[in-house]
Amino acid sequence: MAVHRPAPFRRSIIISASADESRRNLILDKQRNRTVRRIVPIIMFLLVACSERVLAAPPAAQVKSVLILVEGTTDLKNYALGDGRQLATLLGHFDTRHTLKGVNDYVAGEMKRYDLTFYIGFHAANTVPAAFAQDVLSLDNRILWLNTGFQNFSEHYPVSKRFGFSVSHVDSTSIFDAVRFGTKTFNKGEPNLNVVNVSNRQKVTVTAAAISTKRKRELPYIISSGNLTYIADSPFSGAGDSDRYLLFADLLHDFLGQDHEELHAALIRIEDVTPLDDPDRLREIADVLAAKGVPFLVGVVPIYVDPGQGLRVSLSDKPELVDALKYMVHNGATIMMHGVTHQYKGVSTSDFEFWDESTNTPIKGQTAEEIGKRLETGIQEFMKNGLYPVIWETPHYTGSFLLYQTVAKYFSAAMEQRLSLEDFDYSQFFPYIIHRDLFGQRLFPETLGYVPLNPDRKISETHIQNMLRNAKTMLAVRDGFASCFFHSFLDISLLNELVDGIQRLGYTYVDPTSETLWVKTRDRVILTGSQSYEISLQDQYLAEGYFNNKGEVLRRVVSDKRIRGTVSKSIELKEGEVYKAEPVEFRPHEPGIVENLLSGTNRILTRFFSSEPDWHDARVAILWNHYARGAAYNDQASFLAAFRSVNIRVDTIFIGQRPDLKLYNLLIAPYGFIDSLRPADYDAIVRFVEAGGNLITDQKNDLAEELGIRFSPTQLRVRNVRDRMYPEEPVTWRYVELMNKLDIEDVDEVFCQDASTDAPLVIGKAAGKGKVIFFGTRFDPLTQRGTSHYPYILDYVKRYFKLGPVIRRENLEAYFDPGFRHTFSVEDLIKQWVRTGIRRIHVAGWHQYPKYSYDYARLIRLAHANGILVYAWLEPPQVNQMFWTNHPEWREKTRKGDDAPRAWRYSIALTDPRCVDSMAVQFRKLLESYDWDGVNLAELYFESGKGFETPDLFTPMHPSAIREMRSMYGIELTDIFDQNSPFYWKLNQDVREKVIEYRINKLDQVYDRLLT
Length: 1012
Fold this sequence. Notes:
- This protein is an alpha/beta fold.
- Helices cover 28% and strands 25% of the residues.
- β36 (711-723) and β37 (731-742) form a beta hairpin.
């Protein structure tokens, strides 16, 4: 019997309205080739029922204990376990507790401890252990046997005598495509059937029959005898929207003896809403659904990213979109968080987020901490804009078990299909609410799919009719849902047709906020339904809000004092009400009439009369302390380097100078200069800013306070940083920095936060007509390059000040190390290079590892197609990490015989001729394997720190160098740092010169070897 894989159901492969037609068709064709179940997440999620009672858990029944046994072992690579996990998830709809294990681990008599035992076979040649077979024959416990294994059981035990039926073989030729149960008929996605032979009709009851419409053949599908029920295939295999899987899901009520009232709920989800969506379109959809009295969900991606275009847009950047979402909430919408960026390497909504599409596996090396930080970023983005998601949706319904485990700690509920194994094709949909899944979450089902984008309206209408037919079949499940998703860019008349059709079938649209749901992070919560919570604050105010079912504020409360430690509360909410609690760094005040009037007038004038460009040329001056040393010097030099790196000219103003600030639109005031300012200088700088100038300064200082920055006496220890513009890129500083917490206002912009406390580190603040960017710590005390703490300073300047560089773009040259851009797709990188005018790229040639090598061929091919030359960038004495690992005998050494420190490259012995020859062979292999346009041999030297001044870093010290120095010069190389040796370099100038001469000659030899 061929290995089956449950149909992958509808996968959210998102297609935006702006995607080109070929890309859209490619995705849709790819999905059709896989089976009915995987489809685009342009989701309109429909849940069906007659009242809010449908959403609530059924009345408490006696908890049933269930043993689920599957063929083979309890191994997550065992496909039979995938079926077992699907069954276990369905049991989450009922009052059960279950044990899931491989039958190989079964112990004789074990099933006596359970009310019900399931066995699920998988392969045709399936033999169950004797202990289990004997118990099935001899015990009276209730047993349900699914699929294979029964044939072998029938051949080796008196099954026919005991139960009145047996299984003789698997029919794989008749194509059984339907199952009849009474007057109802279901599709059968799995064409194979285990053939049941009835030997004693008085002992058996045939509940359902499998039908081959091709052969006009009918055989038992579900058959019972005494305590045993047998199902002649796995109902999870090939399950589609109108499949016999629905029959099995409904009959679980009877198998478990837990009947539920027949109520059918519907809910529709508007899918893939991003900050780039049309606000008016969203309002129009809200009006249509509100007029029908239909509650709905909105799956929102809070941050839109297009790496190829260098585009990153958050909800905070699009206040009109936020207003439209609030309008939807006012008209019956429930907000869902549909990922954070809905992308891993590609474009938002087209790409996965928690799955690697290139390998079709979970993202390698992803940790729960990384996922959690990402989720917190998304939740915060919603909350700071006054939006409160209460349900999660995994992008494209695809993620690892680690993702599901982590999401369950943040969201009590999700609405989606789920992978039952970490296999893209092993997905499951649910015909009813799963009150507790395998990860502890409540799952709202999505059962009908979506309306695809098609220029031919008739095709779309036909698809809707198919969805309605499937919804009619779903009525066979006594508490089944009709749920689907719909994209905002589709014709709204199609939405009308779909919603009305669902209602005509007898489904009732329901509001998920009638459920008790929660969203929790360490320091914030969102709640629906009365419940208790506990969060932790770190010297922050607690801001609480109560909202009615229209999103209108019922009450706001802010604590009188800052709170440090745990906050525990019990909240009472009426049905449909929402509560939120979060930390804030300031006590907001309600604006007065005059403030509101001025603010509104300013927005109107800006919108309708502003003709200024999006950005201006940056004209920059820096206050330069020529007496600064150490960290203070590094700090000011780093500011200078950051701007000059993009060709922005920076003028220096020295201590004592009287600058003409009218020449500039940006002034940089490093902390090391502030104490040198005279009162007149303060006045001049304040006037400059208040008249419309821009200023950057860092660390707590008098000038910052003069311009309105307020500091708390509380100090933070900062090392892990989260940038609000690039939250998925973790930043960890080498050393801890102390800073005073900032008392900010709600109008201030936060660019960067402490990852542990969310306290602002970098803020933007208005001062008169001008603006200030303030860094709470020193900008960069460690380097003179501006790279150690805040790598995105130029993004802050462009976004907040609207200032940028003027760069010639015709023929730029750049260096590219793939190791620093492993999360970006090659296609998107090429787009970005073309857009920024790069015409020559030097690519690091050292990314070869034991199990992975960078795809240079693909990069070169795409670069050439876009007119970009590609040079191999080599860095001897490094070849690559794999070469260094495989040849310990050729690793460069220190004077103590240890491997030379790997500061930034894996150094090998340039003094060993065999090593150099092998290095040359490796380089030649790399160069001949790909269509390079040239080669760049860069930074060929011996790594030595500060030379003779750093003995423990000094090279070469490889045995080959020691031997050569001894034979050529009579010098013991390892003794040149021994103060008691005649070779001590400080006391023997000749030794020092000979060592330098030797190093130069060896490098010349290496150059000759590589170049010839």
